[in-house]
UniProtKB/TrEMBL annotation:
This is Notchless homolog. Residues 33-93 form the NLE domain. Its main location: nucleus. One of its GO terms (biological process) is ribosomal large subunit assembly. It comes from Olea europaea subsp. europaea. It is found in: Nucleus, Nucleolus. InterPro entries: NLE (IPR012972), WD40/YVTN_repeat-like_dom_sf (IPR015943), WD40_PAC1 (IPR020472), WD40_repeat_CS (IPR019775), WD40_repeat_dom_sf (IPR036322), WD40_rpt (IPR001680).
Length: 386
């Protein structure tokens, strides 16, 4: 079964000509093609129809808007075999050697009705630090910003008013790293002196004395995901001294020291499966279990320092149970449950993936739970990948 669609005058005439040709058995159909429009789920939009091969995305948009009876003309993108259609049908058919004897399935997908414009101006300049700003981090609910500076202070900012909330003093050297707990109850900062300080974001006051243990400066901080443990108590810190340490903010002490790297640790991540990843200048990435601090696996492949790590689940790990609704939870158990649901939804059926950047100008994509070998090696940078 086929049908005829009326759009602009010129296109309408071509479509009618093609339709008439299709209705005459044995008629030459070289200038038209039988098409079936479907939504992304595969639901057909009306019956199949003959379209002139001169039709392109503009004409297809007219057809879709007409078939959907859209009062306001909406933009659509079109895909054939998972490739976006950006040319006329005849060009696509010729380039891909598509047979005209088969119905061509075209998937339409609605696009944003607004135009994305580049940022052309700064919305606010937040001043206060007297030396270079070395680290910044948004709170899990997106309402606050924390910044660490060479002036040895940590500052908390209200993002709604874009004004300062607290100036946190206590460090004796540059503040190099900052990390919020996923439940938003704690903020930890690490300094060039190798000490860590936990702060209360509600008051800006330190939560006890500095945490001492590292022999050199702090290079990274990462919290245990809230879906694994609520309320948040544990975080891991990495240092130039080559060690990673797990701390308990309730006990106010280091509960585990992860040793094994032969050079400085440059980055650290606490994954959603409860595994800690550390990248080092010894060119390796090590995986640690967190109950006893044992080494699980070592990932090798980079030819120079490992400078950075990123997880595919990082966003949901950092925000925990927080979403755009900013809902308040009555208990840690409820927060943990919601955070776990968000994590499972984000991860899906795929394993957690890890990307590493190196001084060898490359990035590696890993599936650490599946294999110790990289899934792919990504090249292209002409300088160091940070």
């Amino acid at each position: 079964m086929h049908t005829q669609i009326f759009v602009s005058t010129e296109f309408q005439k071509s479509a009618m000509d093609a339709e008439a040709a299709g209705m005459e058995e044995g008629k030459d159909m070289k200038n038209s093609v039988m098409c079936q429009l479907t939504d992304p789920e595969g639901t057909p939009l009306g019956p199949s129809m003959y379209l002139p091969q001169s039709a392109g995305p503009k004409e297809l948009q007219q057809i879709v808007n007409q078939l959907l009876n859209n009062e306001e003309k909406l933009p659509y993108a079109f895909y054939v075999s998972n490739h976006e259609l950006v040319v006329q049908l005849d060009s696509y058919l010729q380039n891909n050697k598509v047979s005209l004897e088969k119905v061509l399935t075209i998937v339409y997908q609605p696009q944003a009705v607004f135009r994305i414009r580049p940022v052309t101006r700064c919305s606010s300049t937040i001043t206060g630090h007297t030396e270079a700003v070395l680290s910044v981090a948004f709170s899990p609910d997106g309402r606050q910003l924390a910044s660490g500076s060479g002036d040895t202070t940590v500052r908390l900012w209200d993002l709604n008013t874009q004004t300062p909330l607290f100036t946190c003093k206590g460090h004796k050297n540059w503040v190099l790293c900052i990390a919020w707990s996923p439940d938003g109850k704690h903020l930890v900062s690490g300094s060039k002196a190798g000490e860590l300080q936990c702060w209360d974001p509600q008051t800006g006051n330190p939560s006890g004395n500095p945490l001492i243990g590292h022999k050199k400066w702090i290079t990274g901080i990462s919290w245990e995901p809230v879906h694994l443990n609520a309320p948040c108590r544990r975080f891991v810190s990495a240092s130039k001294d080559g060690d990673a340490r797990i701390w308990d903010v309730s006990l106010r002490k280091c509960v585990m020291c992860l040793t094994g790297h032969t050079l400085a640790i440059t980055c650290v991540k606490w994954g959603g499966d409860g595994v800690i990843y550390t990248g080092s200048q010894d060119c390796t990435i090590k995986m640690w279990e967190t109950s006893q601090g044992k080494l699980i696996r070592e990932l090798k492949g980079h030819g120079h320092w490992v400078n950075s790590l990123a997880l595919s689940t990082e966003y949901v790990l950092r925000t925990g149970a927080n979403d755009h609704t900013c809902k308040q939870y009555s208990s840690p158990e409820e927060m943990k449950k919601v955070a776990l649901e968000r994590y499972k939804k984000m991860r899906g059926n795929a394993p957690e993936r890890l990307v590493s950047g190196s001084d060898d100008f490359t990035m590696f994509l890993w599936e650490p739970a599946v294999s110790k070998h990289p899934k792919t090696r990504m090249t292209g940078h002409q300088q160091v990948s940070y």
